[in-house]
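Hi everyone,

Forwarding the result from last night's run.
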Amino acid sequence: MENSQSLVGKTTIVTGASRGIGLAIAHRIGRLGARVSLCARDAHRLQRAVESLRKEGVEAQGWAADVSDPNSVAEFIARSREAYGPIDILVNNAGKGIFRAAHLLTIEEWDDVMNTNLKSVFLMCREVAPEMVQRRSGQIINISSLAGKNAFAGGAAYCASKWGLLGLTHSMAEDLRDFGVRVSAVCPGSVATDFMHGSSRDSSKMLQPDDVAHAVEMILTQGPTSFLSEISIRPTQKP
């Protein structure tokens, strides 16, 4: 690991950052010295997240945006660049799950999951990757899931989106590695967040948001000649 302020001067974007995993990642990155731009749909919750970061001394801004909409993404990126300059790190964390057998899903539900979990990553990367290529430096981290490797009943849309996200991540990694840009995936199992509300699982045995944030820190503080392409995270006990 590098020193505790190894990201000083770096501009970072975190999507889905108003709570849960995204907020934990923002706190971790902020403590490493980065400037953090937060993105989420709920403006009020987003502002509370920004305030919590600033109380820790983190330089942070937040703008409400729909990451599945190209115009909203472009506007968010433009605001972030205006505030902090070129983007050094992008963490695509925004996610959604609708859990029902595939034949019972509506078209709108299918599109909602795919747009949030997969299309949004494409849109964010499309805005940010060209400048990283031009500078021959950058890091993109996509928060996927073990559901992108393991199917389960009722998980058709969610699993398909996360399977697709891993395909996108590894393909982009090959596209960009010769330009000094590293693209990685973090694949956690069940994490104790609002996302799991209503689950019968024991939350004390689940992964915690900071476990995922720690994996992101590992990727961002690796040496210049290494490339952590994917990290899978499981709890020590099955919940």
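Residues 11-233 form a domain with the Rossmann fold fold (CATH 3.40.50.720).

Cheers,
N.
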